[in-house]
Amino acid sequence: MIELARKKVSSTVNLTMVHTYFEIGRMIVEDEQQGKERAKYGKNVLKELSKRLQVKFGKGFSEQNLRNMRQFFSVYTDRVSSIRQKASSELQSKDNQPAIIQQKPSSEFNGFLNLKTHSSNNLHKTHMKKIFQIFLTLFLFSGCAFCQSKTDTILTNRQDNSPLVEKLLNAKGLEHASIGLLAVDLKTGDTLLDFNSDKSLVAASTQKLLTSAAALEILGADYTFKTSLEQDGITENGVLKGNIIIRGGGDPTLGSPLFAEFYGDLFERLVQAIKTAGIIKIEGKIIGDGSIFGEPEIPATWVWEDIGNYYGSAALGLNLYNNTYFIDFKTSEKAGSPAEILKISPSMPWLTFENQVTASDENRDMAYIFITDQPNHRVIKGTLPKNKEHFTIKGAIPDPAFLAAFELTNALEKAGIMVSDKPVSVYKKAETKNCQILLEISSPPLSQIIYYLNLKSINLYAETLLKQIGLVVGNDPSTEASCKELESFWKSHGMDTGGMFLKDGSGLSRYNALTAGQLVFALQYMKNNSENFVVFENSLPVSGKSGSLESIGKNTPAEGNLRAKSGYMERCMSYAGYVTTISGREVAFDVCVNNYSCSNSEMRKILEELMVGMSGP
């Protein structure tokens, strides 16, 4: 239809624009002056009209552009007859069909100017439909001076007129926000909702869907990480003349409270393996070896405020306790008074803290742990709720490989096995002689790791899987190389990766960018092409039931019928997943909003209404 329109009016495009500009200018003048032409122009009408048109059609209808059209009418008003007659004759096609643009669209446009006096939604829609026809031709042709760069505002951004989309776009607090939305029927492939689905936005933790899905496809649902306990040296009369090595295999769950039953008493198991080897004394040291992923690496684009806290932990070759430590505080009844540190666990006596935390009337955790130029020193700033006997915050263990060696050294000494040297950590694989494996510990299968990765949005697990993809596919576990492998995987499976920018695997970096189309592609791929779909789907929180969706959609059609991964960071909120509608239609969707100005709770409510709406027929 567009191509036909181009051909029919190609010879008269300039006259089309001249006529339309002129008519719009006339309507503005007549409305401002209540039909008194040539009078001084008013100001309020332009401002209000520009605001309304930009909401509907984009920034091409700025106040300045409308002012230009008004001026055009003023200058050429004496030639009104010749302009109209010429445009009318030229806009008749060769087969005498009606022109695309009506000769006198004034009633429709004036109706919009006076829209605030109408209460009927149907009348509003009628006006808008006709106005859309008026302006569509302008956007079809590259000669349009003021709207040339805004073609996609009509042809791409305004792909859907669903009330759900309109409500989202007009929500308070989203006036300056960037929004991406796509919903697709999984059976037919039909697009149900679409707004800016090809625009790159910061997706936050919904990016974990790309990482976890690719890991399932590349590594397999039954894949496990291996951690080995090794002795390097010879044992004589129960004395090991050499070292004990805990060699990490990248397992992100080693010693995790989430898998406490699976691992049992981890260090007791290691002690028993050493005893079984007949070792009663170690003339050497315990080494925590994290060399499989190379030197410790925090993604370069993570912000300073994040990397001292538990969610900013680096993914290393030897991880322990989710790379998380806990600080237990006590706060007094008086706001502004210092908070007291009661306990730090696990114990890390080499780590020192400068506590600047105070009690607050605000009932939420606003305390952050900052790293400093001293590797083993931390500064804690911010506030915690007042009058709390116990309030716990979480930090990122700076060197989990060293902590593992330290914990095993203590456990051995408690068991009566003395170790002569102090524990150390290494991140470059050292040459060993007479190395013997005493125990190998497998992680839970990848299916279980991904379950918690998406349900609880654990950054460490996502970053580890990203590095493992880089190691397995390209023999390079660096973050940069691994991101390239992740993008290559999706591109090789048919995804349009244009506009994709990956800086990590978890979505914590604000330098990441994805489109709604890319996330929905991954969701479609997993549903329609992957043997791992059930594992993948089961990892997503359920509306009204679990994870970050536990409070979303309760007592609505969405409850139990919507599974989605959420994403959040400052001024960014997103959801991506699957919903089954009342009629049984299965839909994959993604919605992402950047730079909203409303509160987080208000933004969450807006997106909840959208998702509940998608659960309808």
Question: Which secondary structure elements does this structure contain, and how are they paired or packed?
Answer:
Elements: H1 2-9, H2 13-32, H3 44-57, H4 63-76, H5 80-90, H6 106-113, H7 121-140, H8 151-155, H9 163-169, E1 178-185, E2 191-195, H10 208-219, E3 226-236, E4 239-247, H11 260-263, H12 266-276, E5 281-282, E6 286-289, H13 304-307, E7 324-330, E8 340-345, E9 352-355, E10 358-360, E11 366-371, E12 377-385, E13 391-396, H14 400-414, E14 418-419, E15 424-426, E16 435-442, H15 446-455, H16 459-474, H17 479-492, H18 516-529, H19 533-538, E17 562-569, E18 572-580, E19 586-594, H20 600-614
Parallel strand pairs: 4-5, 4-6, 5-14, 6-15, 9-12, 10-12
Antiparallel strand pairs: 1-2, 1-19, 3-4, 3-16, 7-8, 7-13, 11-12, 17-18, 18-19
Kindly describe this structure.
With 617 residues, the protein is an alpha/beta fold. It is built from 20 helices and 19 strands. The chain folds into 4 domains: 2-151, no CATH class; 168-221 and 447-614, 3-Layer(aba) Sandwich (Beta-lactamase), CATH 3.40.710; 226-295 and 400-444, D-Ala-D-Ala carboxypeptidase C, peptidase S13 (D-tyrosyl-trna(Tyr) Deacylase, Chain: A), CATH 3.50.80.20; 321-396, no CATH class. It has helices at 2-9, 13-32, 44-57, 63-76, 80-90, 106-113, 121-140, 151-155, 163-169, 208-219, 260-263, 266-276, 304-307, 400-414, 446-455, 459-474, 479-492, 516-529, 533-538, 600-614; strands at 178-185, 191-195, 226-236, 239-247, 281-282, 286-289, 324-330, 340-345, 352-355, 358-360, 366-371, 377-385, 391-396, 418-419, 424-426, 435-442, 562-569, 572-580, 586-594. Strand 11 and strand 12 (377-385) form a beta hairpin. It is elongated, with a radius of gyration of 32 Å. The two termini are 30 Å apart. Residues 1-15, 35-43 and 86-160 have low confidence and may be disordered.
